[in-house]
Structures are given as structure tokens and as C-alpha cells.
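Thread: "does anyone have the structure for this chain?"

Original post by V.I.:
We have the sequence but no experimental structure in hand. Need at least a predicted one for the grant figures.
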Amino acid sequence: MGKNKRILLIDDEEVITFGFSMVLKEPGIELDCANTFEEAQRCINAHLYDAAIIDLRLSNSVQMEGFDCIRLLRSRQAGCRIIVMTAFGDNGSREKAKELGADFFLEKPMEPETVKDMLKTLGIFDN
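Reply from O.Q.:
Generated one for you, C-alpha cells below.
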């Protein structure tokens, strides 16, 4: 049996982290959730991740802390696959996320199963 895969979910909406947790948690998968950039930073410093699912806007401000999360992951864990999800998906955000190293860019709302299928194509989940 191989080692467990670890996923980091970064989103400030608890209903989203709860919904994704219900779909993504299964044997062989360790899932960490962070609601703020500071929590995400602690997780990234403490663990190595196979994949991260990142919301761009983590607070009620106009600042998009998700970009900071992508930068931090790319600087510390180059092999981590990154899926960005946002309700604020314009072409500028999409291009910036790609430039910073995001693998996929999705616009909310989306079903957790869609993200799980993406993770399957990345080899995080068994098919």
C-alpha cells in the first residue's frame, strides 16, 4: 500500500470546507482545511501537500489572499498541484493564477465532485 495523499483546502466559507470535506475524505487521503491566509501558512509550513484547492478571496476585503497562498506553495512545495476556485473569476485573475503556477482555474459555484474528478486526473485519488 502506498503512502497517503495530503490535500490542503483553503476557503473562508465553512459551508464549502464542510461540503468538500464530505466528498474528499476517504481512506488514503488526509485533508487539512484553512480559512485564512495565516492558517494556510501554518499548514504549508507543517506539511507537504500533493494538492491544494485555493479560493482567491479569503475575507470580505477586496484583497485576494489566494494569490499569496499560491506564491507560498510554489516557493516551498513546487510539486504540489494547485486548483484555484473563485467567485471572482475574470481573465486577469485567471492569467495571474496561471502565471503564479496554478494548474487549474475554476469558477464558483462548482460541485465538490468536479474537483474530485480533477484530482483523480492528477493521480491524487484512485480511479
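V.I.: this helps a lot. The helical segments are 14-24, 37-46, 65-76, 91-100, 112-121.
O.Q.: and DSSP finds five helices and five strands in the chain.
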